[in-house]
């Protein structure tokens, strides 16, 4: 790399300027670098030849003796000037300097007469265009306005504001515009202050709000806002986006004008002026936008580099500005044109030169330009070349071996071959950019290379370089050859039986197939040699139904993909419809709709069955409860009857046991409401064990002698010795084996189980 002092670069560049008619103009240009350096000037891209009117000074600056906006031949000295410097290593161009003539137009806005009541606000305005921007001053009654008076505010754009008017403010006003081109006076306007200060309430009102401004950084912006009302409104400022305005460089002129000094890009935004009635929320607003532009400047400059032949050189140039600048590259002062080995990336901020050679050695410039200004930076590319390097390899040939393989061969260079340590084969698709190139290293004793893993039907370019420890040779001639076409790969095939006479062949599209134009489908009975087909199918078809088949035999189905290079390998599948038919008979397919309906019916039946079952259980419980209660009451009647003197059985045939303890009360109605006691029922309700029966018999024998059957008395038990327990159902007493009815026996009643 070279030191900065040895680089060809500008120390001073020409700058924008405004020239005065018939006055001399000097444009400065100073360059440093390795001598000799030649400096020339251009105007609007055309070379300036020294003449009596314009010539170059010894220090490289351009001198224009009498600047003319329009000359007699129609030409003009206005335009864009740049300075070019050249030495042995290259050429650089300065930034463009815009030269304009100083001018001043007539006033296009003059002050107007005004009549304002005392205490009010008066505003006068005049506007005029000029280069440079005219300075406008105000006169009252032919004397300069006293700017020390706080009630008088002069704004840069030619506005005069007078607040809190008094009678002495009346007079005649006019403005004076001045720049290096001329001095001009506006028409006069009369201000009349009438009456006394009014005390009538008036809503706040903004007479003039801020206008939209577009300025450059470091300039000063004045946003006007003048309001009236009674009481006098309070003027405040804010940003529409809510960000704070800040305090640095901020000043309020008069009663509400906002002045921002030393503008930056961050000051851009929409500003809102508000006039508020004191002590209330009554307000009026007006707004205007401020756009601050910044000329282009570099964040990263390109750096000079040195690279060996055949390598890659990269220059980076990053610029910022508002609006964002456009970047242009020059090579030795000329617009750089891209090619296969010269590429621009990242919005032109990166310049890449691939496979550099000695012709690429030059000075490369980055020009950044926007509406606010332009700048430039340069860097030099030095291509390293060592004496005694090998000459390029000879007789480079490339032969196609297959769809994915090419063999490249060459012969050794003609000169300087002793120091060769190897070769490098450069490979890329012919349609790809240079940066997609890749390399394969080869030993110095090998003069051929088999390049594999290539794409079918694709063109590739190849060239060779011979390498030594001191550098590489120049590239050999480039040879281009294409790989063979390739037939498609085997498709995946699936067979689905539709019914006893039809099957469906399906396959999936895949990039693994390669380039294909379509498919061919064949099928046959396995015991036959002849195929049915081919059935030609388009490349986007993925299924085909084969019908009218014989269910008793096995079929073979074959599918292959084809293209212009031929048929690919086929995929074969065998299918038997007989097994499917048998499975269908043994396991008939379900009728989903019917099953669903059956499921719905079964569910409904289950629910109904549950309801019926619950109902039955409830009825059974109720039946048992009421049946048990009836038996209990019946036993109570039996107890009542057993506790009273008994009459012979023959005499109590009409006597009944009355339910609910109503024996006495309803004795006359017992034939209707009562129920006679059946001894067999008592025996069933209160069965007596044999031992108890014997005891009862013994007790009876001990107490009284035997008596005839009809006069047998039933033993009685006191109520306090009688209790009722829950019965266990027993079968009724069986008749004797003889079949005769049982003899009448004394009824002793149940044993005391209490």
Automatic annotation (TrEMBL):
It comes from the Eukaryota. Residues 643-653, 689-703 have a biased composition (Polar residues). One of its GO terms (cellular component) is membrane. Its main location: membrane. Keywords: Disulfide bond, Glycoprotein, Immunoglobulin domain, Membrane, Repeat, Signal, Transmembrane, Transmembrane helix. It is a single-pass membrane protein. Residues 8-100, 105-192, 204-287, 295-382 form the Ig-like domain. Residues 735-746 have a biased composition (Low complexity). It is found in: Membrane. The keyword Glycoprotein applies. The chain crosses the membrane at residues 606-626. Residues 392-486, 487-583 form the Fibronectin type-III domain. Pfam families: fn3 (PF00041), I-set (PF07679), Ig_3 (PF13927). GO terms for biological process: cell-cell adhesion. InterPro entries: FN3_dom (IPR003961), FN3_sf (IPR036116), Ig-like_dom (IPR007110), Ig-like_dom_sf (IPR036179), Ig-like_fold (IPR013783), Ig_I-set (IPR013098), Ig_sub (IPR003599), Ig_sub2 (IPR003598). Residues 643-754 are annotated as: Disordered. Residues 663-673 have a biased composition (Basic and acidic residues). Belongs to the immunoglobulin superfamily. DCC family. This is Immunoglobulin superfamily DCC subclass member 3. The gene is Igdcc3.
């Amino acid at each position: 790399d070279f030191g900065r002092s040895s680089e060809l670069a500008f120390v001073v560049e020409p700058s924008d300027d405004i020239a005065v008619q018939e006055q001399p103009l000097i444009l400065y240009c100073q360059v440093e670098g390795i001598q000799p350096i030649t400096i020339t000037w251009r105007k609007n891209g055309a070379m300036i030849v020294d003449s009596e009117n314009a010539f170059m000074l010894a220090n490289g600056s351009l001198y224009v003796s009498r600047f003319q906006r329009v000359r007699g031949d129609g030409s003009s000295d206005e335009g864009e000037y740049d300075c070019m410097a050249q030495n042995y290593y290259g050429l650089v161009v300065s930034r463009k300097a815009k030269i304009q003539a100083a001018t001043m137009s007539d006033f296009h806005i003059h002050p107007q007469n005004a009549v304002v009541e005392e205490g009010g606000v008066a505003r006068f305005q005049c506007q005029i265009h000029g280069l440079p921007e005219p300075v406008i001053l105000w006169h009252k009654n032919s004397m300069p306005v006293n700017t020390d008076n706080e009630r008088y505010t002069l704004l840069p754009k030619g506005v005069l504001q007078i607040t809190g008017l008094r009678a002495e403010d009346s007079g005649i006003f006019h403005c004076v515009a001045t720049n290096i081109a001329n001095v001009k006076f506006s028409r006069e306007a009369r201000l009349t202050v009438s009456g006394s200060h009014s005390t009538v309430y008036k809503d706040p009102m903004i007479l003039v709000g801020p206008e939209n401004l577009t300025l450059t950084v470091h300039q000063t912006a004045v946003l006007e806002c003048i309001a009236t009302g009674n009481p006098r409104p309070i003027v405040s400022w804010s940003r529409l986006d809510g960000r704070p305005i800040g305090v640095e460089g901020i000043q309020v002129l008069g009663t509400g004008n906002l002045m921002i000094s030393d503008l930056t890009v961050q000051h851009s935004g929409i500003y809102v002026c508000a006039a508020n009635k004191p002590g209330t929320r009554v307000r009026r607003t007006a707004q205007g936008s401020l756009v601050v532009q910044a000329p282009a400047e570099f964040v990263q400059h390109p750096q000079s580099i040195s690279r060996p032949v055949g390598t890659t050189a990269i220059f980076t140039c990053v610029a910022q500005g508002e609006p964002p600048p456009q970047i242009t590259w020059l090579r030795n002062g000329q617009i750089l044109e891209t090619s296969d080995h010269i590429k621009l990336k990242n919005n032109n901020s990166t310049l890449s030169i691939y496979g550099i050679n000695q012709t690429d050695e030059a000075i490369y410039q980055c020009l950044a330009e926007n509406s606010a200004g332009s700048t430039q930076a340069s860097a030099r590319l030095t291509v390293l070349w060592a004496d005694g390097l090998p000459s390029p390899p000879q007789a480079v040939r490339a032969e196609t071996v297959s769809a994915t393989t090419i063999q490249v061969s060459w012969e050794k260079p003609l000169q300087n071959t002793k120091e060769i340590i190897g070769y490098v084969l450069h490979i890329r698709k012919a349609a790809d950019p240079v940066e997609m190139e890749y390399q394969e290293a080869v030993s110095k004793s090998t003069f051929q290379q088999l390049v594999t893993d290539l794409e079918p039907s694709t063109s590739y370019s190849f060239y060779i370089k011979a390498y030594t420890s001191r550098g590489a040779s120049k590239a050999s001639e480039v040879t281009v050859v294409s790989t063979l076409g390739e037939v498609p790969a085997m498709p995946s095939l699936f067979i689905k039986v539709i019914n006893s006479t039809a099957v469906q062949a399906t396959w999936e599209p895949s990039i693994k197939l390669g380039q294909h134009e379509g498919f061919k489908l064949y099928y046959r009975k396995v015991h036959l040699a002849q195929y049915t087909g081919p059935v030609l199918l388009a490349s986007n078809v993925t299924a085909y139904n084969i019908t009218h088949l014989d269910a008793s035999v096995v079929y073979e189905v074959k599918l292959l993909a084809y293209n212009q290079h031929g048929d690919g390998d086929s995929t074969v599948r065998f299918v038997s419809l007989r097994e499917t038919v048998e499975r269908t008979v043994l396991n008939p397919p379900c009728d989903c709709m019917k099953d669903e309906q059956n499921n719905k019916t079964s569910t409904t039946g289950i629910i109904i069955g549950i309801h019926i079952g619950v109902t039955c259980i409830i009825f059974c419980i109720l039946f048992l409860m009421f049946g048990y209660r009836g038996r209990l009451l019946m036993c109570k009647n039996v107890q009542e009857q057993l506790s009273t003197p008994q009459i012979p059985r023959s005499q109590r045939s009409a006597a009944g046991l009355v339910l609910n303890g109503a024996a006495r009360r309803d004795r006359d109605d017992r034939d209707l409401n009562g129920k006679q006691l059946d001894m067999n029922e008592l025996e069933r309700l209160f069965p007596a064990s044999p031992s108890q029966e014997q005891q009862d018999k013994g007790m009876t024998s001990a107490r009284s002698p035997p008596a005839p059957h009809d006069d047998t008395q039933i033993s009685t038990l006191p109520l306090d010795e009688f209790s009722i327990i829950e019965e266990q159902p027993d079968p009724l007493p069986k008749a004797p084996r003889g079949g005769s009815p049982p003899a009448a026996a004394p009824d002793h009643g149940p044993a005391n189980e209490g």
